[in-house]
Amino acid sequence: MDLSIAAILAQDGITTGAIYALLALALVLVFSVTRVIFIPQGEFVSYGALTLAALQSQKFPATCWLLMAMGAACFVVETAGLVRHPERRRHAPRTLVMLAGRYLLFPIAVYAVTRGVFMQPLPMIVQIALTLLIVIPMGPFVYRLVYEPIAEATTLLLLIVAVAVHFAMVGLGLVMFGAEGSRTTAFTDANFNIGSLSVSGQSLWVVGTAIVLIAALYLYFDRTISGKALRATSVNRLGARLVGIGTTQAGRLAFTFAAGLGVLCGILVAPLTTIYYDSGFLIGLKGFVGAIIGGLVSYPLAAAGSILVGLLESYSSFWASAYKEVIVFTLIIPVLLWRSLASPHAEEDEE
Q1: Which of 13, 32, 52, 295 is the right S-S partner for 314, CB 3.0 to 4.6 Å?
Q2: Is the pLDDT of residue 288 over 90?
């Protein structure tokens, strides 16, 4: 390996590591706020990439149907909750109007807009905005349908449910998108030469977007009231509840951010590689390795660990391409051993 090849591999590693970093941050956010190890995080990557690919090929994205179905299910669950709690019936008419707007009218509006424009050649920015509008609301919908009823369950039960949600979303992905993969149009075809190294404009888009999003998340958690509420919930759920912070709203917001980061990762990575209905699982697992390096609590360590995963994957593909996945996932073993030896153990009931 000479210096030029090493530089090319480093470029690829940093690009993919930036994707893994965003997913790792989403996983840390969801776990710290809700105690959910969100295994289906990668499915939002696939949904976002394949929805954008459908729009670019002027096909109606089937995720619109899924969005309406999930919204209708949320409306039924919320309405059943009103029936079960007589004390809420006094405000039932106004509540039903709000619920209908959130869970029925909004998905129908998204469906109508998509149906009206998907046959037209849309600018890239409009395609991306429409993809975000379709897929991001699925995050809080998943939380409302699956996790909110069991929010106080044990971490093990939440993990088992996350596995079930993953399989359900993968199966729905196969039904909606089929077994064939898709690749989207690159944001730019520009290439920049730095000495003997050629840097693609798409890679710069990926790294630049990751840096901007990480900075935006830092400012959000540090400067805004809702961000501080999320951070308080992640530190102490009971204490946050005692001072009036709604942990349910915090959970929905965390899942919204996670879905948004997943969709953006799918949009960024789709021009670089072919995405299939189940590709998100492997991408999400590599983000999970980065999150584990951060102990599922530290955002900077999770981001740094994800860059390390990207570089390790890139150089492994050169030296031992058949074993690159094994090498990447083996990285989690010494990290877990070190954390097991260095951190005191506590029973879940004591935490």
Answers
A1: 13
A2: no
